[in-house]
Structures are given as C-alpha cells and as structure tokens.
Write a structure and sequence with these properties.
31% of the residues lie in helices and 25% in strands. It has 315 residues and is α/β, with parallel strands linked by helices. The chain folds into 2 domains: 159 residues, LD-carboxypeptidase A C-terminal domain-like (Glucose Oxidase, domain 1, 3-Layer(bba) Sandwich), CATH 3.50.30.60; 126 residues, Murein tetrapeptidase LD-carboxypeptidase, N-terminal domain (Rossmann fold), CATH 3.40.50.10740. The strands form 2 sheets. It has a 7-stranded mixed barrel with strand order 7-11-10-9-8-13-14. It has a 6-stranded mixed sheet with strand order 3-2-4-5-6-12, with helices on one face. The longest helix is centred in the N-terminal third of the chain and has 13 residues. The relative contact order is 0.16.
Length: 315
C-alpha cells in the first residue's frame, strides 16, 4: 500500500504542521516573490521559449547557442553581487560543457572564492553539473528545485510555493514517508550527514571530471526521467563499480518518471546487494512534486511513530 506523502515546513520560531497542504501560488504571491528579490534568469543549457519572461520583473540576458557565450553569461551572473537569486530557465543539455569552461578560467575561480555574498541558485536535471560545481568548489548551499519556466505551469506551481517559504526564512524542511528499499534501511534508526546528489545521468557523467561528485560521508539523493529501468540499473551499478558508493551514508531515490513494477523490482534488486541504507520518496525530481533538496544542508534520516522521515536543517 502506498503511503501518503506529507511535507513539513518549519519556519523560524514557528511549529510546522505535518498535515498542512502545499498550495499553488496566487497571482499576488507570484508578483511578491518576483518583486521582492533581485532575480536573474540564466540559461546554461538548451534553447526554449522565453516570451513569457517579458512581462515579469526579472533580469534575463537571452539564450545563446554557443557554450562559451553561455558560460560568459553564467560567470557574470554568479559574480554579480546584486543578484539575490539565480534561477535556471530550464535543465537543458550543455550545462556540463559550461562547467568545464568555468573551470578553465582561473581569474573567475579566484573571484568566486573571494565573494562575500552568495545568491540562491535554483534548478535541476542537467543543472546538476552546475550545482555540483558550486556546492563542491565553493561550499554553496544551492537548491535542487523547479526551473523557472515551470512557473507558468499551474500543475507545478505548488513547488514554487515551497520555494517562496524557503526564501522567506524556513530553517528546516521535513519530508515524511521514506520507503526503505533494503534491510539496511529498515534496520538503521538514525543517519546524519551533508546532502548532495541530483540527476543520475549527470552524476554518472561527472565521473572522472573535475566536478566529479564527492560522496564520502554524504547522503546522496538521485532522480531522473525518460530512462528505462535497465538504464537506471546500469547507471547505478556504474556508480557502485566506480567506488563512489563505498562511503555514502545513505541513498534516497526520488521521482524516476516510472512507477512500473519493472522499475520497482530493479531498484529493490539493486538495493538488496548493498549494505548502504536505500530509500525512495516521491517529493523531488521530474514529477508533480519537486520540493527543495538543499546541497550541503545538514540532513537527518530517522523515524517518527514508526514512519521514516528526512529532515534538512541549517538552511
């Protein structure tokens, strides 16, 4: 039987309500979030429609075909201390190429290390490459969450409502209903560590690069979409054979856009071969729910009334 997923958002000085529903943003709330913060939209990946941006109070320097042009825009946006939020327009193939270019600019890297103010960087999917770069090289707390073009999709606007609460000062985010996928997950009472992860295919792509994911003592979250179960299995085993899972504290698998028995069997078969606690939960990824997973946040996995939960703190 599928357990109903609940989200607990604990505001500073305020007790969270496990049963409080997360609603879509109203037009006024949307205007509020866009007007109260200095937001720059960046597009390190592929081209997509941008006409809807013209009526919104956000900065946007356009979409460029070449990765060197895209990298130049990303560099300028990251170094601009006026930006409160850098919101990626979409995921988009090509972000990994941009990250490689960023690594080649030593002057840019030096300026990044000297920055006194850090913007919130939001995105997912191929943006995982940029998230790993920023979280690992500079220890930023970047946000795996909805890309900006999804703000026009009513069926996904509740994700922006959670982002708004985070920007307004949430100190903890708690997801209830982790599903253990192996015996280690059932047996383990409490796990704590820093959070990292993202899109599984991009994490696999990172292997052997300068931005290879750093997994030691981390809690690893994974999501993907449009991948067959056998491809998911192959990617997971590549991570395992590359020794990247040897010192992981736990793995959390989010939405994979496939709820078939074949996919569930694939995940459980992989999980039972490892001593690492492995869980699943449908609150992040390409599905309807894509709530914030904060890189470098302090994470605890524990139980409450017999139900496993994931809590992110020190946001």
């Amino acid at each position: 039987m599928k357990i109903i997923l609940l989200i607990c958002l604990i505001l500073s000085g305020c007790k969270g309500d496990l049963n409080k529903p997360v609603k879509a943003l109203s037009d006024q709330e949307l205007t509020d979030i866009l007007s109260r913060y200095k937001i720059e939209i960046i597009a390190p990946g592929e081209v997509c429609e941008t006409d809807f941006l013209e009526s919104l109070p956000v900065k946007f320097n356009g979409i460029h075909q070449g990765e060197y042009q895209r990298a130049a825009i990303v560099k300028a946006a990251l170094l601009n201390d006026d930006n409160d939020i850098l919101w990626t327009l979409r995921g988009g193939y090509g972000t990994a190429k941009v990250v490689e270019i960023l690594y080649d600019d030593q002057d840019f890297l030096l300026k990044m290390r000297q920055k006194k103010t850090v913007p919130k960087v939001i995105g997912y999917c191929d943006i995982t490459a940029l998230q790993l770069f920023l979280s690992q090289e500079f220890n930023w707390q970047t946000i795996h969450g909805p890309v900006f073009r999804e703000i026009k999709h009513k069926r996904k606007q509740h994700n922006f409502s959670v982002i708004k609460r985070f920007l307004d000062g949430i100190k903890q985010i708690k997801f209830v209903g982790l599903q253990p996928l192996n015996q280690a997950a059932n047996a383990t009472q409490v796990i704590s560590g820093k959070l990292t992860g993202g899109n599984l295919a991009i994490i696999q792509t990172s292997i052997g690069t300068r931005w290879e994911i750093q997994t030691k003592d981390k809690i690893l979250f994974l999501e993907d979409c449009h991948e067959k179960p056998w491809r998911i299995d192959r990617m997971l085993h590549h991570l395992k054979s590359s020794k990247l899972l040897d010192q992981v504290k736990a793995i959390i698998i989010g939405n994979l856009c496939d709820n078939s028995d074949y996919m569930q069997e694939t995940l459980r078969d992989f999980a039972k071969k490892l001593l690492i606690p492995i869980y699943s939960i449908d609150v992040f990824g390409h599905g309807i729910y894509n709530y914030p997973m904060i890189y470098n946040s302090d994470v605890e996995i524990a139980s409450e009334n017999g139900i496993k939960f994931l809590k992110q703190s020190n946001l």
